[in-house]
Structure of Putative gamma-glutamylcyclotransferase:
Amino acid sequence: MSIPLKERTEIKDSPPPPPPPPPPEHPQSKMSPLVLKLKSTSPSQFFQPSTLTPITDSPTGPYFLYGTLADPFLLSEILGLANEPEYRLAFVKGYKCKLWGQYPALLEEPESVVEGIVYHVLTKEHGNKLAAYETGNYRAEPCRIVYTDGYEPAQDSGYTFKFVGNVKDLSDGAFDLGVWLKRVGR
């Protein structure tokens, strides 16, 4: 059976049929399964900090610094210093470090020791700059500093940035400042 010539011409000249209509829109169909799961999870399942840290000016005085802040050049950049900062070698007892990603996180641990440097913060502005660099997962807390450079005073009361984030985010490991500096191209 063949189609007459007239009908073949009409079929050829007619516009193509319209595209099929889009599927009915379902608002949740555009969300990823992960987002849907998070939305259905009870808030009690998420990390709730034990206390909220009030936003206040950071204290001044000796700061025990470990990790990335123990690099004098980075410290100079953060604080906007014209010269390399003066610091002393020291340690704090009663703390240990774990890793928060690639960064060290200071936690309380009796009889453990963490080595670092001490920089004397003279202004609240500098204290606030250090606190901003450390993010909300760290808080400046009082500590007892023991100097290892042989100069006086041999000990001092000061501050250090203690990790106050979710400890479930931490892993075991050691921070190596030299390796970190190479990794970031310094």
